[in-house]
């Protein structure tokens, strides 16, 4: 995501992005759990995770895997919050930021629509530069990923990295 000014003046732009528990289940009566953590490394990340409370390994519901974790992440310059989507969006509209808090009241997907949101301020100049470009990522991590004959196998990319 980036911002560019079309009047050649510098502007600050507040941006917001969220995802809801619907990413892990087609059944809005399923209970989801979530957490948000900072991952330290070459670039520090904020990582939000969603997962079903009751995982059903190797099962799908309308082509959506019923096990694993949805990871939603960005760099640590964003503010974050895990709460009901309406609360997140309303807070962002009023303040342009989030509170860096996590509501741990795990619940059904349709119960106050739990979500994880990120907010930040971008500086919009006349050109796109690396300084005003930020990245977001989404991944669905399943362990094990597949069942092949009598063995369970992880995703290939995991063999290239140590840990999470």
TrEMBL record:
Residues 2-162 form the Glutaminase A N-terminal domain. It comes from the Eukaryota. InterPro entries: Glutaminase_GtaA (IPR052743), GtaA_N (IPR033433). This is Glutaminase A N-terminal domain-containing protein. The lineage of its organism: Eukaryota, Metazoa, Ecdysozoa, Arthropoda, Chelicerata.
